[in-house]
């Protein structure tokens, strides 16, 4: 009888310890999920899947100014979402070509609305692959304005000026690296 009582006590203690460990692990997981959920889509850690627009831009040495502007305008989560989006992403040299002081001025907190409008002028809702783009095509942008596509010597040009340098497919759409900053009219 003592053996049976001892076995029952050990079994009960094992069950209690096991349940306690599971509860602690569950609580820790809930805390981690809560902490990550406040970061939005940009807070999701995934090193296996194809990169989204923001991740791809962050990994490009040619888009550091654009990334800084997207962060300043608080558009990181929006551009990390599922999309699909087509982003016309100016390279650093495009920002450098703007009049002196323009970028610094746009990055000020009091100019956040203007910066957001300019950045949204570079974003189309939907994926517009190269073969879909036609001469004279008008595409609505996230800020409510339109851009116009043309083709010169087989090269895609936006608003008659900005040349497409590369097309980069991403998990939530397509990035076109362009050589000029698009400014809403």
What would your notes on this structure say?
With 185 residues, the chain is α+β, with helices and mostly antiparallel strands. Helix content is 41%, strand content 21%. The protein contains 7 helices and 7 strands; from the N terminus they run H-H-H-H-E-H-H-H-E-E-E-E-E-E. It has helices at residues 2-37, 53-58, 64-72, 76-80, 92-96, 102-106, 112-120, and strands at residues 85-90, 123-125, 138-140, 146-152, 155-158, 162-170, 173-178. Strands 2-1-7-6-5-4-3 form a 7-stranded mixed beta sheet. A hairpin with a 2-residue loop joins strand 6 and strand 7 (173-178). The longest helix has 36 residues, at 2-37. It is globular. The model is unreliable at 11-42 (pLDDT under 50).
Spell out the helices and strands N to C: HHHHEHHHEEEEEE
Helix content range of the residues, please? 40-55%
Radius of gyration: 25 Å
**Structural category:** alpha+beta
> Kindly state the mean pLDDT as a whole number?
81
List low-pLDDT spans.
11-42
Order the strands across the largest sheet as they lie in space.
2-1-7-6-5-4-3
Strand content: 15-25%
| Total helical segments | 7
Give the overall shape, derived from the CA principal axes. Answer: globular
The profile of the biggest β sheet is: 7 strands, mixed
Distance between the termini: 91 Å
Q: Count of DSSP E strands?
A: 7
């Amino acid at each position: 009888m003592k053996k049976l009582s001892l076995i029952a006590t050990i079994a009960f203690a094992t069950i209690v310890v096991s349940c306690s460990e599971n509860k602690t692990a569950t609580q820790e997981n809930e805390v981690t999920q809560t902490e990550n959920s406040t970061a939005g889509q940009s807070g999701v850690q995934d090193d296996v899947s194809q990169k989204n627009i923001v991740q791809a831009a962050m990994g490009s040495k040619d888009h550091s100014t654009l990334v800084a502007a997207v962060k300043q305008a608080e558009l990181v989560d929006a551009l990390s979402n599922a999309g699909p989006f087509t982003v016309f992403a100016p390279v650093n040299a495009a920002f450098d070509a703007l009049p002196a002081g323009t970028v610094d001025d746009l990055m000020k907190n009091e100019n956040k609305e203007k910066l957001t409008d300019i950045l949204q002028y570079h974003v189309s809702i939907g994926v517009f692959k190269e073969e879909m783009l036609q001469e004279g095509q008008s595409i609505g942008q996230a800020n409510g304005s339109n851009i116009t596509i043309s083709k010169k010597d087989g090269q895609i040009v936006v608003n008659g000026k900005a040349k497409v340098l590369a097309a980069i497919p991403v998990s939530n759409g397509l990035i076109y690296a362009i050589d000029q900053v698009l400014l809403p009219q």
